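Try it yourself: sequence plus phenylalanine, in.
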Amino acid sequence: MLRSLVRARPLRSKPLPRYGQWSSPFIFVLAVIGSAMGLGNIWRFPYLVGQYGGSAFVLVYLACVVAVGLPLMVAELMLGRRSRCTPIYGLLRIAREEGLSGGWSVIGWLGSVTGMLALSAYSIVGGWSMAYVFRSAAGAFHELDAVAAARLFQELTDDPERLLAWHTLFMAMTILVVGRGVRYGLEEAVRWFVPVLLTILGILVFYAHGQPSFDRAVDFLLRADFARLDATALLAALGHAFFSLSLGLGALVIYGAYAPERVSLLAVAPVVVLTDALVGLLAGLALVPVVFQAGLSVVPGPGLIFQTLPLAFGTIPGGQLMATLFFTMLVLAIWISAISMLEPAVTYVMKRWRVERSLAASLVGVLVWSLGVLSLLSFNLWSHLQPLGSWSPLGRGTFFDVLNFFVTGLLLPLTGLLTALFVGWRMSADSSRIELGGGWGYRLWLVLIRFTTPVAVVLLFLHAMGLV
Ligand code: PHE
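Structure, out:
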C-alpha cells in the first residue's frame, strides 16, 4: 500500500527544510496520524456516535470529512511542503511568490497562536491522565462507588498544587521531545508511541470483546438510527472533524514542511482520516462495553474518562490492569498530539530570533505553561470567575471553558476558512497543481476546497456563535 503513497519522481527539486525532514514517507504518515489521534478520538467520538444514531452518524461524519476535513488537510500539508518553512513565514513567502498581500501570513499567526492556546488546556488533561495511570496501577479504583469516583476526580481538580505539578511534568515532557528536533525528538516519539498506542488499543478491544455487554455496545455504536440525525448532529460532526484531524492549528502545515518531496499528499490524507475515524470507533468498542457492563451510561468528555471509566474498571475482573493500560494509552495519545501543537510556534521563534531549537522550545513551552496555570486555577481557586459573564453562546463558563470555546468554536473554523479561501481562490491553480500532481483527484479537491469547505465552515462558525 505504501507504494501508492509515493510518486515515481519528485515533481521539482527544492532545498531541504531548515528545521529537519521526516526520514521516510512512512514516518511522515505515522506522524500525521499521531497528531490526529488524541483526546478527540477517545473522549468525544464514541459519545457522538452513540448519541446521534450510531453508524448513521458515522456516515455523516465521513461526509463532513470528505467535504471539509480532507480538502483542508491536503491544503495545510501542501502549504507546508511548498514553503518548507514555519507556518508564519511560510505563508508570507507563498503569498509573496504568488504576488499577493503579505497579510495572508495571518493564517500562520492564527494557527501558531491557537496551537499554543489549545496546548495550554490540553496539557491540563495530559496531567490528569498521568495522575490516573498511577491511581489505576495502585488499585485506587477497586470497588469504587459513584460518589467515591466523583470525589476521587474532584480531589485532584480541587488541589492547585497537584494540578500544577502534573501540568508542569506534562509540559516538560512535551518540551523535551520538541527540543530534540525532528529526527531525534518528534520522529523517535512517533516511531515508538504510535505502534505502542495501537497495540494497547488492540488489547483493550480484545478484552472488551470478552465482556457479556459487547454486543449491546456494538449495537449502540453501529446500529443506524437515522431518526436521531438532525442539524445538531451535522454540526457536531463538522466541529469534531476539525479538532480530531488537527486542522487549523498549524500542526499539519509544519508536518507538511518536513514531508518528503515524493509523497503524494492526495494519497496520504485519506489514509490519515480513515485511520483517525477507525481509531475513534475502536476506542468506542474498547470503552463502551466496559461502561455498559458496569450498568453505566456513556457521557461526553472528562466525565467519561475520569469518573465513569474508573468506576466501571473498578467493578470488573482484570479491570485494574486494563485501566492502567488505558490511561497509559491516553497519555501517549495526548503527548504525541501535544508536540505537534507546540512545533509551529517553536520553529517561528527559531527563525525569528535565530535561536537554538532547545531554547526556542523552552521559551514557548514556558509561555504555554503559564497560560495553562490560568486554566488549572479555573478548577479551584478561580472557579467562581466567569470571564465572559453570561454571554449567550457559551453560558457561564470559567477561563478553561472560555478558552476551549474560543479555540474550537471560533479560531479553528476561522483559520480553516481563511486557508480554504487562500488556497482555493487566491493561490493560482497552477501552483497547487504542481504541488499535488494534477489528475482527477486534484480536480475534485479543487472543487471541494473552493466551494464545499468554505460554506461548511461558515455554518460551523455561525453555529458556534449561536446564530444557527
Ligand atoms: N487531533 C487531536 C485530537 O484528536 C488534537 C489536536 C489538534 C492535535 C490540533 C494537534 C493539533 O485530540
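One thing you can check immediately is this: The first helix runs from residue 2 to 5.
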